[in-house]
Structures are given as structure tokens and as C-alpha cells.
Amino acid sequence: MLDLILIPFVAAMVILAMNAYFGLHVIRRGVIFVDLAFAQIAAVGSTVAFLLGAGAGSTMSYLFAFGFTVLGALFFSLTRLENGAVPQEAIIGISYVLASAAVILLASFTPEGAEHIKETLTGSLIWVSGGTVLKMAAVYAGIGLFHYLFRGRMLAVTFAPDTVRRVWLWDFVFYLTFGIAITFSVNLAGVLMIFSTLVIPAAIAFLYTHTFGRALLIAWFSGGVAIAGGLAVSFAWDLTTGPLLVLAFGATLVLAAALRPLLALRPERARLGPGRPRGERDGGAGAESAPAAEEAASA
What is the mean pLDDT of the chain? Predict the structure, then answer.
């Protein structure tokens, strides 16, 4: 069984490594459903490619999904307006609903539409090849390296956006890299699994800490436990992998919440946040970058 479970496990861990990081950002930004919206927008692109005859996981499918993701990144970066009449979370929710309706409508034009919709929701992780995992890992490594090199800007645009000049541009860069990561994993893992790897490990982490570096380690560990347990049960009892992994993430969240009072651990006071006055956060320096955000990430 180990040889059958190894490649899906590695693929899921690669997805978790990147998505847990982005999950900490989206929860801190309060745009929880942006990952669902992005995954569904990418699914629209892959569905259009599917209608044009492209197979799942083909280059054409990735290109269409990426093209739609770029449009989504540009749209979400421009809708992050201060004191906007409509909250961005509402815009994100509307985008998700419209993208979901578009996938269902487009898929109805083909006899295989119902199966395609099922794959967009639950993915086909169990059938992933080693070559696909390597390609995804290479893309994720590039995204991770970019975020490490520009970690000051990337953290500041989430934790202290009012200290960043041309915030919409850095927001677009954030959403673009986020969208690329979603593009390369949604066909494989499905929308539900992508949402779970983004939000649930990050939610577990914030139960125990508000320090970014520690939160990332907790998110990786808790997500790894969910993936290992879910895959083991799936193979042992011959159950559908995608939905079972999602339930495993949910069970891990319940377990983490139950253990919290027993371990007597509470998150330390957040070091910075969008609600704190600018002068308190950066000493009124008005710097373009956010040293405080880097400080939060370094621990």
C-alpha cells in the first residue's frame, strides 16, 4: 500500500506547503472565500479549455485556467478599496457564485459535464503522476522564493497595507502569485481540498499563536497530520480520497480546538494589525515597507 499512497501524499504535502502560507494571509486579510473564488475562476478557465477539447492537466487547460486567474487577480486587487460602498468579501462571494454558475452552465454543453464538475470539486489526487508532482513543486518553489525575497512587501501588504505605497500593485502581485498556485493545484486536488488546505491549517494555527513564523509551522504540522490520516483511512477502507481528506482536515480542526484548553495554550497578543493606529505601529515613520510586519514574521 505504501507505494500507492506515497505519490498522492507527496503531492498533497506540496500543495499544503504553499497553501498554508497563503491561508495565513487570507485569514489575516479577512477575505476567507477568496481562495474558493480563485479556485472556481480557475475552474471556469479549465472548463472552457475542456469544451475546446483539452484534456484535464494538459498545457492548454493550465493556460486557460491561468488566463482567467490573471483576470481575477487584477479584479480583486482593484476592488480592495478603502471605505468602499461594498465590502470586498461580498464582491468575492459574488465572484464565486458567478464562477460556479458559469462552470455548471458550460459543463452542461457536453455529455461528460457532470463528471467534469465532480472533478473540479473533489479532484483526482489519487491518480497523480510523479512528473506532475515535480512540475507543481517547481512552480511552488519559484513562488515561495519570490515571496521570501520580497517578504517585507508581501507581509506588509497584508498586515500593514497603509504603510505600503502603490498598495494596489503589490496586492495584484500577491493575488497573481496566489492565483498561479491555485491554478496548478485545483485540477489535481479540487476546489474543496484547496479550500481546506488554505483555511483549516491556518485557522488551527491562529488558535495557538499570532506570530507568523510559528503559525506557519503549526499550519504545516496540523495539515500534515490531516493528510496522512485521511490518505491512510482512504486506502485502508477503499473510500473516495478527495472528500475523505476534506473531512480529515475538519476532524483535525475539531481535535485542535478540543486540545487547546487541555494544553492551556493561548495565542500571544497580536503584534500588529490593520486596526492599530499607524503611529503606534511604525512610529510614524511612514516607511514604504513595514519593518513591523517583518518582525512579526521573523519569530
Answer: 81
